[in-house]
Write a structure and sequence with these properties.
Elements (H helix, E strand, L loop, with lengths): L2 H27 L8 E10 L10 H11 L6 E7 L2 E6 L2 E6 L4 E9 L3 H9 L3 H21 L10 H23 L1
């Protein structure tokens, strides 16, 4: 097996996963500005009365949401930060101002295909972790074998490629050292 055939065959085998990871990675880079993984179905404003912050327990939150807001959904978590009670369910996000009791409940759905692709980045099941490790090693192999696809001449790694590789390494290093 030649370097070219290793490079070619790994590239062919992983082309779908490379495109999927690249696309979902771009979307994840911008998730602070919009939520590509989900879209809003409905937003409702409401008014409620909350007890003292120390009395806002998981049991209280679940009762408030199911009894008063009539939301039936799978509970994830609740947090209190900056005088806001945030409640997360599988398909709902609720935020209530602790002082005023004014709140907003948002119902959302997962965006088909995009949500599943982004899930690849977050999946922690054992088999996927091992598959991702093999994928990562294969990407290293694709990168290394790619350096030798043109073994001689003005397009070779020795003549030209090493300069581009160094330039490509400088960007993340500069970011890590000075901007992060």
């Amino acid at each position: 097996m030649t370097i070219r055939s290793i490079h070619r065959d790994l590239g062919y085998f992983y082309v779908g996963l490379i495109i999927s990871f690249a696309f979902s990675g771009i979307l994840m880079n911008h998730r602070d500005y919009w939520h590509p993984e989900k879209y809003t179905i409905e937003t409702k404003e409401f008014q409620t009365q909350l007890p003292k912050e120390s009395e806002i327990t998981e049991t209280f939150v679940k009762g408030l949401v199911s009894d008063e807001l009539k939301i039936k959904d799978k509970f994830r978590r609740h947090t209190i930060k900056n005088e806001k009670l945030r409640i997360n369910y599988e398909r709902h996000e609720i935020e209530i101002d602790i002082k005023t009791g004014k709140g907003e409940a948002t119902e959302f759905r997962k965006t088909p295909v995009i949500s599943q692709m982004m899930g690849l980045h977050k999946n922690t099941s054992n088999w996927w972790i091992y598959y991702s490790d093999v994928f990562g090693l294969s990407l290293i192999a694709i990168a290394v074998t790619g350096m030798f696809v043109f073994p001689k001449g003005k397009l070779s790694f020795k003549a030209r490629g090493w300069k581009l590789a160094v330039a490509g390494l400088l960007f993340p290093l500069i970011f890590l050292l000075f901007l992060a």
